[in-house]
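Subject: Sanity check before I submit

Could someone independently write out the structure tokens for this chain? I want to compare against mine line by line before I put it in a report. The sequence has 165 residues.
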Amino acid sequence: MDSRLKTSVWQQFGAAIDTLDDAIKMCPDHLWSAVLWDDAEDARYGHFWFVAYHAVFWLDLFLTGTSEGFAPPAPFVRGRLPDQPYTKDDVLAYLKACRQKAKDTIFNLTDEQAYKVCVFEWMEPMYLELQLYCMRHLQEHAAELSLVLGQHGITGQDWIPKAKD
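---
Independent answer below. Compare away.
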């Protein structure tokens, strides 16, 4: 892939990650378990901490390109909710690791890798398209978290035009 294209993709993908990072960092402890929405399956799915974790989990999985054999790093578990909410520090450390993984992946992406079809139960995009899908997913959840922060008077988040590095 062309290096200019890789740089452009990273600048925007990194900005989406940085937007989520800001929302998580700005969350005060008393809002970490705040309810964003009611979820009939399990109330925790609508909590601030879970939405943040969910976005990072799927970032990691989509960068991997397959769900087959995928497992998040400890202390995170796949397929069930933890007994206690994940900590902000743990979610931020996971996001930081995924940010580096994303940057490395994008800058090392070959045409062959970019066009490889990734098979999931609900879609079969090319790898590059999956990363654009992932960027939209990150931005959606970063916006939800930012909205909740704003509704609770937590301000200071600003538009991030490109990756911070």
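---
OP: Matches mine. For the report I'm noting this point. The mean pLDDT is 96.
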